[in-house]
């Protein structure tokens, strides 16, 4: 099981939301972080449209570093436990100011350095 993604790149390399992909015909989509192939899941009565990594399309880099593929076990356990109390609860993504110790890149958003293409060397910056 991989984490749901609501953004990807289309065959032309443009960022596409799942809602936008819903409006267009079937296309090829790749992860905006690791360039691995994604499968598009259309909107149903119970869920919004979303993208998912597939085993056959995973790049080596994606298998090792993509946060949508390598979801922390603790995070999965916490989400499942919360769903017993609040069935429709969605997980929060931690966003913040990050500093990558590997390349010294400073960035904002999810813990994933686009320069290094991983989040393993990043730590959150504390602001006063």
Automatic annotation (TrEMBL):
<feature type="domain" description="DUF3279">
    <location>
        <begin position="93"/>
        <end position="124"/>
    </location>
</feature>
<dbReference type="InterPro" id="IPR057150">
    <property type="entry name" value="DUF7828"/>
</dbReference>
<feature type="domain" description="DUF7828">
    <location>
        <begin position="2"/>
        <end position="88"/>
    </location>
</feature>
<dbReference type="InterPro" id="IPR021696">
    <property type="entry name" value="DUF3279"/>
</dbReference>
<dbReference type="Pfam" id="PF25165">
    <property type="entry name" value="DUF7828"/>
</dbReference>
<protein>
    <submittedName>
        <fullName>Protein of uncharacterized function (DUF3279)</fullName>
    </submittedName>
</protein>
<dbReference type="Pfam" id="PF11682">
    <property type="entry name" value="Zn_ribbon_11"/>
</dbReference>
